[in-house]
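Help needed: design a sequence for this.
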């Protein structure tokens, strides 16, 4: 939503767009301030900024085959105290996924159409 407001702010004005969309102008202005000054981000967001390159590095160094558990274990061995769920969230946000052995799992199978000869 913030990107949409940024795109059309010059044409319609940020306040008017905020009035139409379900977002408070103060929220929009806070996001702009956070973008300019990263120290205004929450502690979790600040930590995510520092951890994302490390997660990407560990994933790339291991031929992009490590999943969440192995990336997390490798980071712990390297001295990064980070929760496994944090690594999972960051990998999901960055679009990183480990390799799955074997065939992909198919959980549903469609019914065959029944032909009637009558």
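Sure. Designed sequence:
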């Amino acid at each position: 939503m913030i990107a949409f407001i940024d795109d059309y702010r010059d044409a319609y004005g940020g306040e008017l767009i905020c009035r139409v969309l379900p977002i408070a102008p103060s929220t929009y202005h806070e996001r702009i301030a956070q973008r300019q000054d990263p120290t205004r981000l929450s502690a979790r967001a600040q930590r995510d900024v520092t951890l994302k390159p490390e997660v990407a590095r560990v994933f790339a160094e291991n031929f992009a085959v490590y999943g969440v558990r192995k990336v997390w274990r490798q980071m712990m061995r390297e001295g990064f105290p980070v929760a496994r769920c944090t690594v999972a969230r960051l990998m999901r946000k960055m679009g990183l996924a480990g390799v799955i052995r074997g065939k992909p799992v198919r959980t549903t199978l469609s019914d065959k159409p029944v032909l009637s000869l009558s």
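The chain is about 60% helix and 0% strand.
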